[in-house]
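ok trying again, last paste got cut off:
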Amino acid sequence: MSILTTHDSLLLDLDGTVWEGGQALQCVVDVINSCGIPAVYVTNNASRSPHTVADMLGQIGLDTDAKHVVTSAQAAVRMAREDLPAGSKVLIIGADSFRTLARDAGFEVVSSADEKPAAVLQGMDKSVGWEQLSEGAIAINQGAKFYASNLDTQLPTERGLAVGNGSLVAAITSTTGVEPKSAGKPEPAMFTQAAKLVGSTKPLAVGDRLDTDIAGGNTAAMDTFHVLTGVSRELELIEAPAELRPNFVGAGFHELSLSEAQARPGAQGGFMARYDGYDIVLQGGNEKSTSIEALRTVLEVAWAGSQAPRYIQPRSEFAEKAVSTWQ
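nice, full thing came through this time. structure:
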């Protein structure tokens, strides 16, 4: 049985997992539309409203709606609402849709630190610059609470990794000395909320970042599937601490069709791996062996060790071919 038949929902990251720069990644649309289980889109990107995200997903061929989208901006507003009195003034650093969510939650949205906001809420938006960041820093230095939609330092784009919200948050933190409360992944709240939306008892969290998607799913006690189409690649997986290790690893979305045994780390593709001192030696393989099979073979050994290996030493023609593609 495939992984899709042993789970009752997909909790999907977007950037680097479902799409890149708004363009669907290979096989994603076909797999989601044909898998027979509900999908909920769980994104740390706070620059778009749930309705906008649902519309964009529709444009690439996915049948969904805003009720199946959970954003970190929603999570940040919910966190602030739990901490602050109704009607409190808040300064939003981010997209207009973030301000709308705050108003809908009963907050008074202000634009200046001079208006003495009770909190600063920061989310990703490409228009954010010095003026907004400085206004937030001044407000926080005057005593405002600090919330961040997420702390992703990088944002995958079709041209490569761009500056993420966490990098912008770091500018305020370095100015104020104040660390924000982060609402998005890897906190478990977004995952548990997403599962509840579709009544899921056996969800599968799918993502491309170990420190957000996989860590969050693990913290929420869910099965996790890591795809190598975004930020975290082979070498980061090999060095991952226990809390960042996924249950399953796939080259891309199409490998959700594999069985659990095939997608788990373990010897496969004719490869064999073992520790030799501080290094892992990778041997074997054949003409049909793939890079991802070599990776799963190495991961089983690496994750069983007490520390990450110093080097991966390929000792066969097929091992060398596989390892040469790793990043």
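cool. The radius of gyration is 21 Å. The chain has a mean pLDDT of 95.
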